[in-house]
Amino acid sequence: MVEQHKQEPEIPYLTRFQVLGAMGATAIILLIVAKLSLYFGNFSLFSWKWDQRELLLGVGLGIIITALSGLAYRFFPLYRKSADYYLELVLKPLALPDLIWLGLLPGLSEELLFRGVILPALGSDNTAVIVSSLCFGVLHLSGSQQWPYVIWASIVGILLGYSALITGNLLVPIVAHIVTNWISSYLWKMWQLSKIKS
């Protein structure tokens, strides 16, 4: 019988405070990069405005992305292994209330940089969506075996990029990103807790 070994992280497991600190530091760095790009660049920030219809569109897109992720998790073993590795590294040390920050910090800072700044800096066209989405995917690389997760994050980046282009409102990808992070992280935590109880 072949014994299956769990993939050990290439970086050591983090504590709750290390994960929260890393999320906060990453958000601050991304915000600084976005601000410097706007200051030195010759382009305008993708605008965002409050609109109830587009808020709901963002929520709907977040639910769709989460559902697609669930299908990929179920039917693609390489993605499942990669996602479990990433989620265990990031989510396992966090308490349920911490998931609020897991939605807000990346949702705001990453969307401001990738869809708010990089997308218009590259021309707000199909090439800009693809390049900014690939950069977004690489941001989610946490080890040399994580390419399936990077590919998935790049696909999500394309969906988020086109949502910004089509609506002209950064609110849509921000809300979609936050909702996706909240739902998927909550479901993963609940699944882990149910495994412990059974």
What does this structure look like?
The protein has one domain. Residues 1-7 have low confidence and may be disordered. Helix 3 (77-91) crosses helix 6 (147-167) and helix 6 packs antiparallel against helix 7 (171-197). The relative contact order is 0.18. With 198 residues, it is mainly alpha-helical. It has helices at 16-40, 52-75, 77-91, 99-121, 126-139, 147-167, 171-197. The chain crosses the membrane at residues 20-40, 55-73, 146-164. Keywords: Hydrolase, Membrane, Metalloprotease, Protease, Transmembrane, Transmembrane helix. This is CPBP family intramembrane metalloprotease. Pfam families: Rce1-like.
Give the structure's gist in a few sentences.
Pfam families: Rce1-like. It contains 7 helices and no strands.
What key attributes describe this structure?
198 residues; mainly alpha; globular; 75% helix; 7 helices; disordered N terminus; single chain
Strand content: under 5%
Topology pattern, helix = H, strand = E = HHHHHHH
Biggest β-sheet, characterized?
none
Q: Which overall shape is indicated by the principal axes computed on the Cα atoms?
A: globular
Beta strands, count: 0
Low-confidence stretches: 1-7
- Radius of gyration equals 17 Å
Q: If helices are DSSP runs of H or I spanning 4 or more residues, what is the number of helices?
A: 7
Structural class: mainly alpha
Overall tally of structural domains: 1
